[in-house]
Amino acid sequence: MTLPHGLTPGTWTLDGSHSEIGFTVRHAGISKVRGRFGEATGTVEVGHSLAETKATAVVKTASFDSGDANRDAHVKGPDFFDVEEFPEMTFTATSIAADGEEFDVTGDLTIKGVTRQVTIETEFNGVAVDPFGATRAGISGETTISRKDFGLTWNAVLEAGGVLVSDKVVISLDLAFVAQQAEQAEQA
Where is the Lipid/polyisoprenoid-binding YceI-like domain (predicted)? Predict the structure, then answer.
């Protein structure tokens, strides 16, 4: 499996200020709540092929933000993420399969100490050199997980039936990575 056009071997690090790790979950069966995690680190070690490429990410659970302080405090507490006990969630890619400019990135996602294999459907958005000389690559992706699979089981039954928070959570990624400067200089 060859590399996407413009992506070169080497270390690429997540640019957190130009990336977003978001989520969507259905609330009360009638609306969706969206939010994001504001602190994350990640590295892609691009090999000479996709089979040789490795990716890891660490997300700080305390950086959870849904725009509502009360909800955020509840989600950061023991009913959900328990950020005191589990300050990070992690992802480690185990395989990358290509289909044109789209890729299935399969790996181990760990939330609240529970690890499950997930597949993130991603799209490679290209490579560009910014005005400051940094080489950047963009990737977007999405996966759907079950909260229950990760021990996030808190819920409340609604008077009309159903539950307050859906089990299904959609995780969406818009990521920017920057090639390491030393490797950029070697390529020049």
Answer: 11-178
* 54 residue type, one letter: K
pTM of the predicted structure, to 2 decimals = 0.86
How far from 24 is each of 31, 147, 168, 174, CA to CA, in Å? 10, 12, 9, 14
Q: How far apart, in whole angstroms, are the C-alpha atoms of residue 144 and residue 152?
A: 14
- As a CATH number, domain 10-187 is 2.40.128.110
Could you state, in order of their start, the residue ranges of all structural domains in the chain? 10-187
How does pLDDT run across 47-73, given as a tens digit for each residue? 998 889 999 999 999 999 999 898 899
Q: Residue 114: how many CB atoms within 10 A of its CB?
A: 13
Close Cβ partners of 125 (under 8 Å, ≥ 6 residues apart): 137, 138, 139, 140
CA–CA distance, 21 with 136 (Å, rounded to integer): 18
Q: How far apart are CA 11 and CA 19, in angstroms?
A: 17
First-to-last alpha carbon distance for the chain, in angstroms, is 25
As given in the structure block, the two tokens for residue 118 are 């997930």
